[in-house]
Design brief:
Length: 266
C-alpha cells in the first residue's frame, strides 16, 4: 500500500490548514510533491502558507476560506471536491470545549458537532466516488485519544471524536482491496492553537511538558502511517498510554477519573 502518485492535476486537500497539525500536514504533503487545496476560515494564514509552500516545494497551492461548520459553505466545497481529482483528503479541522454541557453555549456545541463530525462525514462522502472510480486515494481523519472513552466535562468533543475515530477505522476496513485507504490519526496532547481555540489557558500546566508532542511530529507520523496503509496512527508515548488505558479500563471507572481531570481545565 502506498500513497497515490502526485500529478499536476491531482490535489491533496487539508482542512484546518491555517495552523497546528493541518499546517504541518500540508507541508509534509507538499514535500512529497502534492499540489494542495488548503481549507480553513482564516484566509490570510492560508495565503501565507500557500505562497510559502509553492515557493519552497514548487507545488500549486490553492486556498479555500470556508467555515466548515456552515452547511451551505461546506456543501459548496463538497461539490467542488466531488468534481476534482482528489488524491488525498486530510479531514483535520476541529476544536474542543471544556465544562459542563448544561452550561455550554448550545450554538457553539452544535458548531463543534458540525465541524468535528458532520463535516468529516460530508467531505469523505464527497471524494469517495471519484477515488473509487480512479481506484486511488487516501483519506486521513484526525480523531483523538479523547474519542476512545467517555469524557465528562468534555462531552461534545469526546463524542465527536468517537465518531471520527470509528468512522476512520470502519472505512479502513471497507476499503480493503479497493486501492484506497483510510487512516485514523488519534493524537494525545499536541502543541498547537488547540487550547486557545477551546478558550482554556491551563492545559499547559495540567499536562507536564514532556508529554506534549509537536504538530510536525504528529503530521510526519500521520503521513508515514498513511503511506504504509495503517489503520490507526497514535503519535507519542503518552498518547499510546492514554489509548490503552482509555480502551481497556472499565468505562464506569475511566469516566469519573476523567471528570476529575477535565473539571480542572479552565
Ligand atoms: N492539539 C491537540 O492536543 C489535539 C489532540 C488530539 C486531537 N487534535 C485534533 O487535531 C485537529 C487539529 O487541531 P490542532 O491541534 O492543530 O488545533 P489548531 O491549531 O487550533 O487548528 C485547528 C484548525 O481547524 C481550523 N478550523 C477551526 N474551526 C473551523 C471551521 N469552522 N471551519 C474551518 N476550519 C476550522 C482552524 O482554522 P481557522 O480558525 O482559520 O478556521 C485551524 O486551522 C483537530 O481536529 C483537533 O481536535 C488535537
Amino acid at each position: 500500500m502506498s500513497l497515490p502518485t502526485p500529478t499536476p492535476t491531482s490535489r491533496a486537500v487539508v482542512t484546518g490548514a491555517s495552523s497546528g497539525i493541518g499546517a504541518a500536514l500540508a507541508e509534509g504533503l507538499a514535500r512529497r510533491g502534492y499540489s494542495l487545496i488548503l481549507v480553513a476560515r482564516r484566509e490570510d494564514r492560508l495565503r501565507e502558507l500557500a505562497d510559502r509552500l509553492a515557493a519552497d516545494y514548487g507545488v500549486t497551492a490553492e486556498i479555500r476560506a470556508v467555515d466548515l461548520s456552515d452547511r451551505a459553505e461546506r456543501a459548496k466545497l463538497g461539490d467542488e471536491l466531488a468534481a476534482r481529482e482528489i488524491a488525498v483528503l486530510c479531514n483535520n479541522a476541529g476544536f474542543a470545549s471544556y465544562g459542563e454541557l448544561a452550561s455550554a453555549d448550545p450554538a457553539r456545541e452544535r458548531r463543534q458537532v458540525e465541524l468535528n463530525a458532520v463535516a468529516v462525514h460530508d467531505l469523505t462522502l464527497a471524494v469517495l466516488p471519484g477515488m473509487l472510480e480512479r481506484r486511488a486515494g487516501a483519506i486521513l481523519i484526525t480523531g483523538s485519544t479523547a474519542g476512545n472513552q467517555p469524557g465528562p466535562n468534555n462531552a461534545t468533543y469526546a463524542a465527536s471524536k468517537a465518531f471520527a475515530n470509528t468512522l476512520a477505522e470502519s472505512l479502513h476496513g471497507e476499503l480493503a482491496g479497493t486501492g484506497l485507504q483510510c487512516t485514523l490519526l488519534a493524537p494525545g496532547p499536541v502543541r498547537t492553537e488547540y487550547a486557545e481555540a477551546a478558550g482554556v489557558s491551563n492545559l499547559d500546566r495540567l499536562v507536564p511538558a514532556p508529554l506534549w508532542i509537536s504538530a510536525e511530529e504528529a503530521a510526519t507520523q500521520a503521513i508515514t502511517g498513511m503511506a504504509a496503509g495503517r489503520r490507526r496512527v497514535v503519535p507519542g508515548v503518552f498518547a499510546k498510554v492514554q489509548t490503552v488505558s482509555g480502551q481497556y479500563t472499565p468505562r464506569g471507572l475511566v469516566g469519573p477519573i476523567l471528570r476529575t481531570v477535565y473539571r480542572k481545565v479552565k
